[in-house]
Write a structure and sequence with these properties.
Blueprint lengths: L2 E4 L9 E7 L6 E2 L4 E6 L4 E6 L3 E4 L10 E3 L3 E6 L14 H4 L18 E3 L15 H10 L17 H10 L11 H17 L3 E9 L1 H13 L8 H13 L8 E3 L2 E3 L9 E3 L1 E3 L2 E3 L2 E2 L7 H16 L13 E5 L18 E15 L2 E15 L5 H16 L1 H6 L1
Parallel strand pairs: 13-17, 17-18
Antiparallel strand pairs: 1-8, 2-4, 2-7, 3-6, 4-5, 5-9, 6-8, 10-19, 11-12, 13-16, 14-15, 18-19
Helix pairs in contact: 2-3, 6-7, 6-8
Length: 406
């Protein structure tokens, strides 16, 4: 009997996704574990693999690249070698497509033996959802965490809010992946921005830094890069920010129902970098920029940004950041108020480098300055430590050569 290949639920709130491409051709023999197709969730594309075997049969009315597909929708068949697949794809059953476990819903008795599962999940999804509290599910939705992959600390392994927040802080859980259509993605972003504004106590501090040394360093890199791309302002700022953050664990802390939770790792600091795409704002994570060379950072940032814009980032590449950097300087913005990237406690907004008159002694001479806007959660830390961090970052930007050399 032909086994249907269905669209899996990649996250507990997912109802639809975007079909990216088939990775195997019609008529190929499929073994269990073979990757069948790519499916895009909220902001990440994931490879979907088969848990059954057979000859792949892709019907003429199967979804094409870019089509929106529903959870539980049948898109193809796995058949025996001499078997003819059904002539039509069945419609999605509203009752089964509304199931909220991690397995694809069944449209027939045979469906339970077939379908597909995500190949990039940190652990296989159970056929039944683990027990969880309503509060844990609500917080997971706010923070974009797939709570079905977590291990609960409550009675009977029940997942509690503290488990969700701990996973968000450590980046050990995959992101929940609702619909990835532009409209729904915009709605998801809007909801998270609203939550960040309403569920936190955001305060923004703004200052300026003398950017002459920063601009000079950038020009030196350009002059010596030859035909290779030179490190840009984002790479320099990522490294400087990560170095300064080592001495400010409060800015890398998170707020939980038990209060402030300090970061476990005091040396390795991963920073999220906001990237503007046609589908919306995407925030991939740059791993340990303080320890990386500027050349390797340039390659990493370029790769992450390119794949963000082509919607090829994985969920793991967008989780685990301790702090966020967002730069609108290229858009000609002087200063702005960035919104917190939950569950993080702080985000730095960077404006453009602009020409300004500067008083030196008794003379007014041309100078360059850059605006920095630090938004922090006042529940996690007070204004004084936030201001101290910002002042140290200003000094690092004004003398980047000494900081990077050290």
């Amino acid at each position: 009997m032909a086994h249907p290949i269905q669209i899996p639920r990649l996250g507990w709130s997912m109802e639809e996704g975007v079909f990216v491409e088939w990775l195997r051709a019609d008529g190929e023999m499929i073994e269990p574990g073979d990757v069948l197709f790519n499916l895009e969730g909220e902001k990440a594309i994931q490879e979907i693999e088969s848990i059954d075997g057979g000859v792949l049969r892709i019907p003429a009315d199967a979804p094409a690249e870019g089509d929106t597909v529903l959870v539980g929708q049948v898109i193809g068949w796995l058949c025996a070698e001499d078997e003819t697949p059904p002539s039509e794809l069945p419609a999605v059953d509203p009752d089964t497509s509304a199931a909220t476990d991690g397995s694809p819903p069944a449209t027939s008795a045979a469906a339970s033996a077939a379908t597909v599962a995500t190949a990039v999940s940190p652990a296989a999804t159970s056929a039944r959802r683990p027990a969880s509290s309503p509060r844990a599910r609500r917080v997971a939705s706010e923070l974009g965490i797939d709570w079905t992959t977590l291990a609960g600390s409550g009675r009977g392994n029940r997942i509690r809010e503290c488990d969700v927040r701990a996973a968000a802080e450590s980046g050990s859980a995959t992101s929940a992946t609702p619909s990835s259509s532009p409209g729904n993605l915009r709605s998801t972003i809007a909801q998270r921005m609203l939550t960040a504004s309403q569920a936190t106590a955001p305060v923004t501090l703004t200052t300026t830094a003398n950017a002459e040394a920063l601009a000079s360093l950038r020009k030196q890199f350009q002059a010596t890069a030859g035909n290779d791309p030179a490190p840009g302002y984002n790479e320099i700022l990522l490294k400087l920010t990560a170095i300064v953050l080592r001495g400010h664990p409060q800015l890398r802390s998170t707020w939980t129902e038990s209060g402030v939770v300090l970061p476990a790792d005091t040396e390795t600091i991963d920073i999220s970098l906001a990237v503007d795409t046609d589908a919306g704002l995407v925030v991939p994570v740059v791993r340990d920029p303080a320890a990386a060379t500027l050349k390797s950072l340039q390659q990493t940032v370029t790769d992450l940004a390119d794949r963000a814009r082509s919607r090829q980032l994985t969920a793991a590449e967008m989780s685990g950041g301790a702090f966020t950097l967002t730069n609108l300087g290229a858009q000609g913005i002087d200063a702005f108020t960035p919104i917190l990237n939950l569950p993080q406690a702080a985000i730095l907004g960077v404006g453009r480098i602009r020409e300004v008159p500067v008083v030196r002694g008794e003379e007014i001479v041309p100078g360059q300055e850059i605006a920095l806007s630090l938004t922090f959660d006042h529940r996690v830390l007070d204004g004084a430590p936030a201001a101290t961090f910002l002042a140290e970052l200003v000094r690092a930007i004004e003398n980047p050569g000494a900081m990077l050399a050290g």
